[in-house]
Fold:
Amino acid sequence: MFEIRNILFFDPFYFKNGNSAKAKYFIVLNCIDNKVVLASLPTSKDHIPNSIKPKSGCIDMPEINLNCFFITPDVCVTECGKHFSRNTFLYGQNIDDYDVEMMKELYPLENTNYIVWGKMKKKLHNKLINCFINSKSIKRKYRALLVLQ
Structure:
């Protein structure tokens, strides 16, 4: 379930703050000692300033504390040839850690509580990780955990 580069799809995904639950992709960035998973939750919400015309890849704007990895629908995301259907944004500020045991309790059954949507292409995953590692906008503890993978 929590292999590095796995893209999981939850419907619904229960957010930590308890305010909402909705269908959500979940990209495994790292799994530490099978206890904590570090993940990014992609979104179709565009928070990039209008003055920037984003291209697929890393967008890092430390002057406004923005770090984002942008994927357009024409980019093949998984080893099995899948694409996200919309512009997809992975914001470094939204990286979070999740307790593996808690996640397994919430989502015990593959293909019922979640699906493994695919495995992110290694080259794309490396670009994503480098985007996050090289950004001063990302919490230091998360940058350190990304380097350890």
